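pls design
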């Protein structure tokens, strides 16, 4: 009996030791996992880069971690300073101790090293070097934090309303977020505004100090028409990709977030781009209906309207879903929300209006011709999805613009 009792006690002690060991490991993983980070989530959008029309969208307005897609914005800032004459391709950038300590992917730069702006561009495009991204930030803005604030301001001015940057590389930061829609906006902007420099994104390889670094974008040369632009990965985001493609004069921008692996992300991008071009062919084959002519009464009513009580059932309403620096993103914003609420916004009329603010022109993205109830209902649903929306009284439908 004593032997059986001793054996049971020994087994019990062993089970307790194992349970404690398992608990210790579990707690270690919990401590190591960054708080506030979600598991990788899928999001995607494909747009016609020529007119901003959305050809496919899934969770495209939901915030995701950009990972190294952040470097597209870093490169945008470099191109902007090149165009302004603040730097040249031969300007040498000095590497700080902080920059040299950045984790991979990196070139392995050391404190006191220098690198030219052109070398920095190529290293960011191909190797996606984090030490180079920090070096660029510190040289162009004094510190990486200041550079990140500058990146965010520029992103906001481009219409990237749900994007915030905290560093120049895309290394993990729980408050560094963007959306598929915003990355598509950035891809269009950098292509249109910097055609002289956009060609760097199709660089296949880069040689530096005797080593050759190959571009992480495996669709270059493997999918017809791809001319850029960037991959990205961190564990919290999954595998991300922004692609630019041109075929037969038709340009598409595709964005994929949250791939399970690089190859599966690439296959998904190929499927979406194939579907995008197929939809373009279908749309081209359909003869568009004639544009409606504005009725004289509506044209007259387009002038400043008399004050009408808000509660009046006769008052026309609309919704405003953003104000942008360019008409393209404004039009795309209206298409996105129309796709989200097809029944509620079926009869709404798109209106993209240019309004002068100081010395600049902003473009208001609106869907008009709604009742007050419909406008408020639409904004309630859109805001629940994290999209901007403001009900606008007195919004009369005229000929469709944008």
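designed seq:
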């Amino acid at each position: 009996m004593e032997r059986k009792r001793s054996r049971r006690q020994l087994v019990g002690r062993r089970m307790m030791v194992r349970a404690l060991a398992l608990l210790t490991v579990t707690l270690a993983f919990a401590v190591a996992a960054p708080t506030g980070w979600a598991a990788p989530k899928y999001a995607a959008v494909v747009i016609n880069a020529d007119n901003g029309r959305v050809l496919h969208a899934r969770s495209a307005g939901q915030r995701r971690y950009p990972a190294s897609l952040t470097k597209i914005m870093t490169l945008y800032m470099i191109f902007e300073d090149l165009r302004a004459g603040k730097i040249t391709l031969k300007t040498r950038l000095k590497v700080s101790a902080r920059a040299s300590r950045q984790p991979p992917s990196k070139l392995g730069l050391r404190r006191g090293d220098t690198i030219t702006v052109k070398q920095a561009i190529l290293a960011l495009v191909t190797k996606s070097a984090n030490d180079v991204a920090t070096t660029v930030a510190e040289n162009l803005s004094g510190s990486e934090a200041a550079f990140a604030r500058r990146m965010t301001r520029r992103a906001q001015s481009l219409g990237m309303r749900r994007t915030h940057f905290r560093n120049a590389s895309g290394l993990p930061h729980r408050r560094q977020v963007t959306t598929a829609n915003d990355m598509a906006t950035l891809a269009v902007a950098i292509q249109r505004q910097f055609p002289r420099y956009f060609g760097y994104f199709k660089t296949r390889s880069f040689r530096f100090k005797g080593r050759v670094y190959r571009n992480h974008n495996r669709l270059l040369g493997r999918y017809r028409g791809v001319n850029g632009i960037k991959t990205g990965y961190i564990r919290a985001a999954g595998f991300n990709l922004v692609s630019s493609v041109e075929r037969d004069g038709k340009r598409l921008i595709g964005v994929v977030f949250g791939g399970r692996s690089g190859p599966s992300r690439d296959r998904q991008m190929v499927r979406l781009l194939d579907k995008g071009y197929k939809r373009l062919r279908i749309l081209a084959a359909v003869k568009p209906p004639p544009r409606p002519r504005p009725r004289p009464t509506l044209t007259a009513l387009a002038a400043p309207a008399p004050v009408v009580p808000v509660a009046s059932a006769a008052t026309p309403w609309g919704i405003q879903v953003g104000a942008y620096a360019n008409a393209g993103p404004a039009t795309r914003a209206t298409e996105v929300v129309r796709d989200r609420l097809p029944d509620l916004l079926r009869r709404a009329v798109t209106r993209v209006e240019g309004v002068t603010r100081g010395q600049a022109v902003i473009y208001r993205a609106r869907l008009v011709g709604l009742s007050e109830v419909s406008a408020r209902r639409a904004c309630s649903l859109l805001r629940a999805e994290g999209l901007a929306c403001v009900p606008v009284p007195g919004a009369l439908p005229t000929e469709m613009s944008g």
